[in-house]
Amino acid sequence: YLKHLKDLGVVYDTPYAGEMMRLLEESRIEDRLMGDKQASVKQVLDYATKFYQFGDDFWKIIGFENEKALLMKHKGLSLQEAEVQAAERIRNTYPTYSMTGRFINTLRRFPLAGTFVSFPSEIIRTSYHIMRYLKQDMADPSLRGLALRRVAGLSIASGFAYAAQALAMSMLGVGDDEEEAFRDLA
Fold it and tell me: What pTM did the predictor assign?
């Protein structure tokens, strides 16, 4: 099952694991930390990478299965057609490290930009594709109801951060002027 998902491009291609592996390769941290105890440090680093990768891949698998079922139900696609389309949608709407462009990969080596510039670029890329799929689904009468549900979900998810911020400010008695002063300080 996992091999099939890997062949479709759903799993084993996460931003955190890929970015962490490139950072570790470039820093040669095993050599600097332990020298002769290199094998045990490498095992710990490999375990940490797999842990990050599992977390991202788990949600990609859930998203893939959900998307596949929705495409089969609402669009009437066969299993094979739904798998291909669902895999494409997951690769385009979930952060996928291999999809970052050459410029971002070059920029992440620049000391002032930091090593984790690929994740914000992936957020921009995935946001574009989410909107593209919403537009595409709104144009398809069989997916219009599903698209409206997704718009509602996207609106709730987008508004949640602002609501949490307003609630926290209210609970802590922080006003707009204090928040602006804090942002200036930061």
Answer: 0.70
